[in-house]
Design brief:
With 257 residues, the protein is mainly α. Among the domains are: 43 residues, Arc Repressor Mutant, subunit A, CATH 1.10.10; 119 residues, Tetracycline Repressor, domain 2 (Orthogonal Bundle). It is built from 10 helices and no strands. The longest helix has 32 residues.
Length: 257
């Protein structure tokens, strides 16, 4: 039995399945139908039986392409990664290209939030994941990154996009569970924050001046993401400007652009 744990259990690492005849359904049809179920109900709503019913086909057609649900989820994750566009190095500046890639990652994960909990469970070695990685390497290589710093830089970029999408998806899910609007939730929380104000004067002063609970949460999350992305790219650009040289005595804080 194939283990679903760890990298060795990946659909991309197993030998091709030996089959005879022709399948009634294509892999693309199966994956697209699976994604519709996942978008509607998440991983818990997907089963081989439910997928077969949705497709009007028996399990045999599904097992032609995948051995189990885990393999199907890997195929679906790679399909989502195929929605992310990374410009060619000569088409734009590396900063704009990196922003387009990060924005695409965040948007894809928000369209398909079930992917967030699946990232890292298996290696992302599908054709779309490899194309994404290849284009990021080309973009950052053209910018001047080499070796492991290139890996660190692209990991920072992807982590920011994934982290932002994770936070935003959690907020959306929490609001959905309450059945309330953001304004209603803010009104519920306000008396509690007022009681805490004497013990947290700096936070209270900032809160009254800024009014974060009175703002649209989507706008706040968008602004937070954009601010973080620009500062991340500023830091990478400064690092490149200094030729990636390590700071004297390892004191990064003493470096200036």
């Amino acid at each position: 039995m194939r283990s679903s744990e760890g990298f060795t259990g990946s659909v991309w690492l197993r030998p091709p399945r030996a089959q005879t005849g022709q399948p009634a359904l294509s892999r693309e049809q199966i994956v697209r139908a699976a994604m519709e179920l996942l978008d509607a109900e998440g991983p818990s709503g997907l089963s081989m039986r439910r997928l077969g019913t949705k497709l009007g086909s028996g399990a045999t057609s599904l097992y032609w392409h995948v051995a189990n649900k885990d393999e199907l989820l890997e195929l679906a994750v790679d399909e989502v990664l195929g929605e992310i566009y990374v410009p060619e190095p000569g088409d734009t500046t590396w900063r704009v290209g990196a922003s387009i890639s990060a924005n695409g990652m965040r948007a894809a994960l928000l369209r398909h939030p079930w992917v967030i909990g699946l990232l890292g469970l298996h290696p992302t070695l599908g054709p779309n994941a490899m194309r994404l990685g290849e284009r990021l390497v080309a973009l950052f290589t053209a910018a001047g990154f080499t070796g492991m710093p290139l890996s660190h830089a692209t990991a920072l970029l992807n982590s920011h996009a994934i982290g932002s999408a994770t936070s935003e998806a959690a907020v959306r899910s929490a609001l959905k569970r309450t059945g309330k609007t953001w304004e209603e939730v803010a009104q519920d929380v306000e008396p509690y924050l007022e009681r805490l104000a004497p013990d947290n004067p700096n936070y209270e002063k900032w809160r009254q001046e800024t009014g974060p609970m009175r703002k649209d949460p989507d706008q706040v999350l968008d602004e937070t993401y954009a601010f973080g992305l620009e500062r991340l790219l500023d830091g990478l650009e400064m690092w490149l400007r200094d030729d990636g040289a390590p700071a004297a005595d390892g004191d990064i804080g003493d470096r200036r652009g």
